[in-house]
Design goal:
202 residues; alpha+beta; seven-stranded mixed sheet; five-stranded antiparallel sheet; globular
Length: 202
C-alpha cells in the first residue's frame, strides 16, 4: 500500500514561496532570434518543471494516479498555446517540451515564455525602439527552495540578431554572417548576473 512521506511543517513554510515561480526550466536549449526586418522567433527544447506540483508531490505524497491526472491537466493547458509542438509527461511534475513561436515586430512589442505571470524569458520593445531581452532568475532563497525540492537547471540561451547592440552581459559571442550570436550558460537558478541585453530595434 502506498505510504505518504510528509515533510515537516517548518520545511513546508520554507518551500511555499517558491510556488509563485510556477514553471522552472530544467535541461534545455533556448534560442531567441530578433532581426532588423522585424522577424522574431523563439525556440525552447528540453524539460520544464511545474513547481507547485513538485511541491505537492514532495509534501503530500501524491499517488502515481493523482500525479498523472494533474500532469494531464497541465499538458492540456500548455497545448492551448500552439507554439508547443511537443509536450511529453516525464512524471514528478516534469515535462519534456519542444516549442517554437514566430512573430513580426512592428512598433511596441511584448513577449513572455511560458506565461506572463510565470515568465522564463521576456522580450520587450518600447516606444523608444529599444529591445530588451532578459532571462528570469530566482533569488538565492528561492534557488535554495528549488534545490530542496530536488530541482536543478542546466541550459543554454542564445540570442541571434543583426541589430545594433546597446548593452549585453553575454560571456560568449560569435559572428554568423551579418548576425551575431550571443550565448549564456545557465547552471544556477540564482545565476548572477542574470542574462540580459538591449538592442536598438528602431
Amino acid at each position: 500500500m502506498f505510504k505518504k512521506r510528509l515533510i515537516p511543517p517548518l520545511f513546508l513554510a520554507l518551500l511555499l514561496p517558491l510556488l509563485s515561480s510556477c514553471w522552472l526550466p530544467g535541461q534545455f536549449e533556448a534560442i531567441i532570434k530578433i532581426m532588423k526586418n522585424g522577424a522574431f522567433a523563439v525556440e525552447y527544447k528540453g524539460t520544464m518543471d511545474y513547481a507547485p506540483l513538485v511541491y505537492k508531490i514532495k509534501t503530500e505524497g501524491l499517488s502515481q494516479e493523482e500525479q498523472t491526472k494533474q500532469m494531464a491537466v497541465l499538458e492540456r493547458d500548455l497545448r492551448r498555446d500552439s507554439g508547443f509542438q511537443e509536450v511529453s509527461l516525464m512524471g514528478n511534475g516534469r515535462f519534456r517540451v519542444r516549442y517554437r513561436h514566430d512573430d513580426l515586430i512592428e512598433g511596441t512589442f511584448l513577449y513572455t515564455f511560458v506565461r506572463r505571470n510565470a515568465a522564463i524569458m521576456k522580450v520587450l520593445v518600447g516606444k523608444d525602439g529599444r529591445a530588451s531581452i532578459w532571462i528570469d532568475t530566482l533569488s538565492t532563497e528561492d534557488a535554495q527552495r528549488a534545490a530542496a525540492l530536488g530541482l536543478a537547471v542546466n541550459g543554454t540561451v542564445k540570442v541571434i540578431s543583426d541589430l545594433p547592440l546597446l548593452e549585453s552581459n553575454a560571456p560568449e559571442k560569435k559572428q554568423q554572417g551579418a548576425a551575431t550570436i550571443y550565448a549564456w550558460r545557465i547552471t544556477r537558478y540564482d545565476q548572477t548576473p542574470a542574462p540580459k541585453m538591449i538592442l536598438k530595434m528602431f
